[in-house]
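explain this:
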Amino acid sequence: MDVTTAIATILKREGVRYLFGFPSNPLFDTGIAEEMGIRTIITRQERTAVHMADAIGRLTGGDEIVAFACQHGPGTENSIGAVAQAFGESAPLVAIPAGYDRAKTDVDPKFNSLINYQQVSKTCEQLSDPDAVGETMRRAFSAVRNGRPRPAVVEVPKDVFPLELSGELEYTPTGASRLGPDPVAVEAVAEALVAAERPVIYAGQGVHYAHAWGELQELAEVLEAPVATSLNGKSAFPESHALSLGAGSKSEPGQLAHFLREADVIFGIGCSFTQTAYGITVPEGKTIVHSTLDPRDVNKDVRADHVLLGDAGLCLAAVTETVASQVDDDRGRFDDVAAEIAEVKESWLAEWMPRLTSEDAPISPYRVIHELTEVLEPAETIITADAGNPRDFLAPFYETDEPLSYIGWGKTTQLGYGLGLALGAKVLHPEKVCINIMGDGAIGMTGLDFETAVREDLPIITICLINDEMASYDTPFGGNFSTVAEGLGGHGERIADPAEIRPALERAVQLTRDGTPVLLEFMTEKETELSRPDLDG
C-alpha cells in the first residue's frame, strides 16, 4: 500500500465523507478518494474549499470532520488565509496539502507548510516517513476531535505520496472525550449566580460544540436570567424565547445592550470573551464568571472573578443542578425580566421599523432583511452573512430558534467567507434553504465559486446587496452579477423596486427547491447606519 492509498483509507475509517480542494494532489488525481466512497468536490479556488470543510465541522457541532487537499506551492499559498479563518473561528477540519519534494522542502523560495501554517493550526506536521502515516494522521484527527476545535495540518511532500509502506496499515479511528468541571468551582459559580440580582448569561460557540442547547435553556429558566449569545453562538438559545437578548456583534439588538449595562454578574459559557469589534464589550464593574474549554481564554482579554473549565454541556449541567438545589422552583423574576426585555425590544424595533419597511429606491438593505425574515422558515434555513455591512444588517434582526441554523463569525473577517459556508451547508443539508448574503466587496473575492454550486448540484441562494461601493470606504465598484450568475449556469435577477423584494425571494426559494442555484442582486442605497445601542448609554 502506498501513502496516497493509506491516507485515503484512514480518511474513510475516520468517517470522512467529503474531501474538498483543488488539484493537483494525488488524493484527487489518482481517484483513490472516490474509490473509497469519499465525495470529492473541486472548487474554483482553494479558499472556498476550506470554507466548505469549515462549515461542515461547525454545523455538526464537531461531530463530523472532513478534509481539504491542495497542490504544493501555489495551492498551499492560496489556502493559508482560509485555514487562518477556520483557526480564528474555532472550526475543526484536517488539511492535507502537498509539499515540495523532500530534497527541496527547505530551499528558498519554496513555500513550506510545516513552517508557515504553525500559527494558524492546532497541530502541523510534515509526513516524511511512509511508515509514520498512521500515527501522523491519528494525531491530526485526535487534535481536531478533542479540546478546542481547530484545523490540523499534515503536509505530505509530493515524492512521499507514491512511496510504499513497509508493512500493513494498522489504524484505529480516533475518538473524542469531554472534560468535566471542578466541583469546587461549580459551587462557587452557582453561589455567585444565585446571589446575583441581575445576572446575564452570555453563550458562545462552545454551546454548539457541546450540543448543550437544552442545558443552556434549563439554566436560564431555573435562574430566571436573560441569555445573550456571541455571533458564533447565535441560535444556541431560541431567539423567540421570552428570556432571549439576541446576539452580540458590531450591531446588536437594543435589549442586549440594556441588560449588559444593568447586569451585576455576567456568566460567559462556552465563549472566549475575545476582544473584537464583532462581539460584546464587557462593561466595567461587573462580576465575571468565565466557563470555557480552553484555559488560554481565561483572563486573556477579560478579567475573570470565577473560572469554570470544561465542556460547556457538562459545566451547564453541573451548575444548573447546584443552582436548582439552592433556589425555589419559582424565584418570582421570570415575568418581570421577560416584560423588561419585551419593552426594550419593542422600543428598539420601533426606531428601526421605518428602515425595515422603507419603500424608497434605491432599496434600503434593511428592507431586504425584513422581507427575508417574513419569507424564510428559520427551522428549514441555514443562513450566513459576509463581513461588513451584510453581517451588521442581518444579525440583530434575523431571529431563529433552530440550533446551528445561523453561521456567525467575526474573530477574523475575510471578505468572501460566506459563499463557501453556504455551499458547505448545502452539502450537509440538501433539504434546507442555504443562503449567504454578500456585498460589493465580498462577491469580488469569491463570487465565481457560484459556478461550483451549479456544477456540484448545490442549489444555494446568494443575495448581493449592491450599492456600487465597498461599505462606507467610498471605494467605487461596478458590475452586473445577476448576468454573471446566468453565465455560470444559475438563475440571476437584479431587483431595484422594493415591491419586488418578496416575490424575488419567494421565487428564489422555489427555484432552489427545484435544483437551481440563485443569485439575487438587490440595488441598495448607501446605508451606513447600524444598530449600536451599546454606544447610547
Remarks:
- The longest strand covers residues 433-439.
- The two ends are 66 Å apart (CA to CA).
